Amino acid sequence: QVPLVESGGGVVQPGGSLRLSCAASGFTFRNYGMQWVRHAPGKGLEWVAIIWHDGSNQYYADSVRGRFTISRDNSKNTLYLQMDNLRAEDTAVYYCATVRGSSWSLWYFDVWGRGTPVTVSS
Amino acid sequence: QSVLTQPPSVSAAPGQKVTISCSGSSSNIGNNYLSWYRHLPGTAPKLLIYENNKRPSGIPDRFSGSKSDTSATLGITGLQTGDEADYYCGTWDNSLSAWVFGGGTKLTVL
Questions:
Q1: Which of the residues A6, A22, A45 would you substitute to probe the B interface, choosing the one with the greatest number of B C-beta atoms within 10 Å?
Q2: Sequence-separated (6 or more) residues with CB below 8 Å from residue B39
Q3: 3-state secondary structure (DSSP) of residue A76
């Protein structure tokens, strides 16, 4: 059983929207912060957003703030990333991962999904 | 331009040791814990080191981490061809209120 499975990726035109999902299983989802990281072709890993275990707080990378929204539904063990006003530079494989550590000073990401690809192109 | 600076590439022969550096500042490495990840494009990234020098279960002791002031190092001994991948350091940045990754280092086992 794979603990995290992303879905919802695809091809979208610039200015369009997509909603990614990350289904969790095999652990107590509501106890963990969650985050999204992306990997664009030929580039390094880029952190996208993070959300507290109870959804009470979120942080975003400057490159996506105001366009992307991270959220979660603990009753469905699912993490989401709503991506609006997409740009070509958002083309990447998007990974979700669990966040461990009691504060941001201690954070690390220990369980990762296999990713879902997003292509923004006309 | 990444906030955390890593060498673009390192290489060594099988069985040898390699180190990968990660340099930052007081707003990130200097005041927060660092973690290291291995990534093969198209696959899930993998946690190698957390809290500067701790290994998750299942990670062999060939992998080690250290931190001093605003810099950190990942060490890999007994290199194997299967270690070829991209390696990233990461930590929270207090000034940016954001998580930051290094630019990544491509390891080649010759």
A1: A45
A2: A39, A45, B45, B46, B85, B86, B87, B88, B104
A3: coil
Q: In one letter, which amino acid is A71?
A: S
Question: CA-nearest residue of chain B to A59?
Answer: B98
Whether A61 contacts chain B with CB within 8 A: yes
- Please give the helix or strand (H or E) that residue B98 lies within, else none: strand B98-101
Segments in chain B below pLDDT 70? none
Q: Is B38 helix (H, G, I), strand (E, B) or coil?
A: strand
CA distance linking residue B93 with residue B100, whole number of Å: 7
User: Per-residue pLDDT tens for A12-71?
Assistant: 999 999 999 999 999 999 999 999 999 999 999 999 999 999 999 999 999 999 999 999
User: Side-chain half-sphere of A76: how many Cα atoms within 13 Å?
Assistant: 9
